[in-house]
Amino acid sequence: MNLSKWIRQAHRWLSMIFTLTVIANFVTMAFGQPPAWIVYSPLPPLFLLLFSGLYMFVLPYTARSRGRVAQEQAGSA
User: Fold this and answer.
1) What span, in angstroms and rounded, lies between the C-alpha atoms of 7 and 64?
2) Cα 11 to Cα 51, 63, 64, distances in angstroms
3) pLDDT tens digits, 13-32
4) How far apart are alpha carbons 72 and 77 in whole angstroms?
5) Burial class of residue 6 in the structure, from the number of CB atoms within 10 Å of its CB (0-12 exposed, 13-18 middle, 19+ buried)
6) Which candidate, 51, 56, 48, places its Cα nearest to that of 4?
7) pLDDT level of residue 74 (50, 70, 90 thresholds)
8) Cα–Cα distance, 34 to 41 (Å, whole number)
9) Residue 56 to residue 77: CA distance in whole angstroms
């Protein structure tokens, strides 16, 4: 599996983990003040989602520019 597919799959799993931590946060808030580790538990998957999401956002633009460079090199040969 190449890097792009691996990052997409990781992004999907991270989104599920993030959703579960947010749900757990709301459930524990229903019973009073939750401990700090539960309140901050959504942050690590959220930061990882940020980086993987930015990578997937930029990927089409870099692929387009790589395609242009390859096209220019093929045309000059």
Assistant:
1) 19
2) 9, 20, 22
3) 999 999 999 999 999 999 99
4) 9
5) exposed
6) 56
7) low
8) 11
9) 32
Longest dimension (CA), the chain: 71
Residue among 2, 5, 1, 7 nearest 50 (CA) = 7
| Token representation of residue 17 | 């983990």
For residues 14 and 45, the answer to whether their CB atoms sit within 8 Å is yes
Helix ranges (H only) for the chain are 3-30, 36-39, 43-76
User: Cα–Cα distances in Å, from 67 out to 51, 54, 57, 58, 59?
Assistant: 24, 20, 17, 14, 12
